[in-house]
Amino acid sequence: MKSFLKSFIYAFHGIWSGISGERNLKAQIVVALLVIGAGFYVSITPEEWCIVILCIGVVIGLELMNSAIESLVDLVTLERKPLAGKIKDIAAGAVLVVSCMAVVIGIIIFRKYLL
């Protein structure tokens, strides 16, 4: 049981490390809080809440993964190497794809409340 609890402590430490050290993650959390506030303001349905929460979780989770990949690449080499740059760019691209998808889903959900 102790190791299970330690796993959660390490995971929360990782989340906090990402939040405190990554500007993009901070921005995404601010956007997530604004979206949550908007959801309460316009009273989105429970089904819409599920979709919004899923989108927020996927974007923030993938940004944490991107940060971990970038840190791992930096651990391996601080030199500018094309492959290291490619790895970082692909990870960032994955975050961009999911973020754009979340924006489109957000527009679909919120447009009926805002028009």
UniProtKB/TrEMBL annotation:
Residues involved in ATP binding: 10, 22, 70, 88-89
CDD domains on file: UDPK_IM_like (cd14265)
InterPro entries: DAGK, DAGK_sf, UDPK
GO biological process: phospholipid biosynthetic process
UniProt-annotated location(s): Cell membrane
Membrane topology: Multi-pass membrane protein
One Pfam family of this chain: DAGK_prokar
Cofactor: Mg(2+)
Amino-acid positions noted as binding a divalent metal cation in the UniProt annotation, renumbered to this chain: 22, 70
GO terms for MF: ATP binding; kinase activity; metal ion binding
Annotated TM spans: 25-44, 50-69, 90-110
Cofactor stoichiometry and binding remark: Mn(2+), Zn(2+), Cd(2+) and Co(2+) support activity to lesser extents.
Keywords, ordered alphabetically: ATP-binding, Cell membrane, Kinase, Lipid biosynthesis, Lipid metabolism, Magnesium, Membrane, Metal-binding, Nucleotide-binding, Phospholipid biosynthesis, Phospholipid metabolism, Transferase, Transmembrane, Transmembrane helix
Residues the record marks as active site: 63
Binding site for substrate: 63
Cellular component aspect of the GO annotation: plasma membrane
Family to which this protein belongs: Belongs to the bacterial diacylglycerol kinase family.
PANTHER family: DIACYLGLYCEROL KINASE (PTHR34299)
Protein name (database record): Diacylglycerol kinase (ATP)
Organism, as annotated: Chryseolinea serpens
